[in-house]
Amino acid sequence: MLWLTWRQHRGEALAVVAVGVGLGAVLVLTGLQMRSAFDAQGVGGCLSPVQPANCSGVVNGFEQQFQLYLSFYQWFNLIPLVLGIFVGAPLVAREVERTTHLLAWTQGVTRTRWIVTKLALLAGGAAVAGIAFTLLMTWWRQPLDLIAGSAMRPDAFDFEGLAPAGYFVAALSIGIAAGTLLRRTIPAMGVAIIAFLALRFGTIALLRPNFMSALVVSTPVDSRPAAVGNGAWVLDDRLSDGAGHAFSGRFAFDQLCAGINDSKGALTSCLQHHGVVESLTYQPADRFWAFQAIELGLFVGVSVGLMVLTVWWVRHRIS
């Protein structure tokens, strides 16, 4: 079975390796470029407690220099989906379309062994690919994480820690399950795209902010506490009066402090004079690993459930 699985899927495996090598080369080259600029421009010195002059300009200049990279790498969120579409969806669907699964089942290989072996090997490969991708992205993002203070925000969280390996396995499992239930490769690819994106974005928008109870703090305008400023994931940031009534920044600037726009200090003083406070809802940076473990568990749970469904469906519903 191992040799048969390799022969059937070596094309996909070699394609994944080739894409991985190409992506790795790009990340290494651009990562070295970012690190060189980070050191040459003295960005690290601006992150120390005693900062030299013009640090804001230095950090902003560094981020502007690599703005193209920072905009593009978010598309890497779709890499696990490629695995689900081109490896997962055809796994069973293509066999059924060609009726080649019957050949394996008539040569002494049981249905259970046939599907379980494929699932185990491909899921293991997906996990290894996810771990390698995570390690490379963590190295690549290190200068950005130093500036941000942590990897808690979604633009970093999705590429570092434990959870990305779960994304790879889940994408594969979704594709396999879709192909098994639909028995058609192309429709299964479409369903896999929709299901994976719904799971990923639903987790980011609805589940992850509530993995643990968010902290809420009210502080004078322009004086965030260190815990919030040091890499926390801010979920909500609003202005309110002393009684807790929220209002928009436009109301504060246009009504309470109309005409005061000569300097940031004058505007801040005006807002503080009117008792305006900044209410922040956030997840602190020190919850990063707890959130990673929870999200990994979520995606592994989804993967296991889909694999169990796939095995059951192959054993009882495919002929």
From TrEMBL:
<keyword id="KW-0812">Transmembrane</keyword>
<keyword id="KW-1133">Transmembrane helix</keyword>
<feature type="transmembrane region" description="Helical">
    <location>
        <begin position="12"/>
        <end position="32"/>
    </location>
</feature>
<feature type="transmembrane region" description="Helical">
    <location>
        <begin position="72"/>
        <end position="93"/>
    </location>
</feature>
<keyword id="KW-0472">Membrane</keyword>
<feature type="transmembrane region" description="Helical">
    <location>
        <begin position="289"/>
        <end position="314"/>
    </location>
</feature>
<feature type="transmembrane region" description="Helical">
    <location>
        <begin position="161"/>
        <end position="182"/>
    </location>
</feature>
<feature type="transmembrane region" description="Helical">
    <location>
        <begin position="119"/>
        <end position="141"/>
    </location>
</feature>
<feature type="transmembrane region" description="Helical">
    <location>
        <begin position="189"/>
        <end position="207"/>
    </location>
</feature>
<protein>
    <recommendedName>
        <fullName>Transporter</fullName>
    </recommendedName>
</protein>
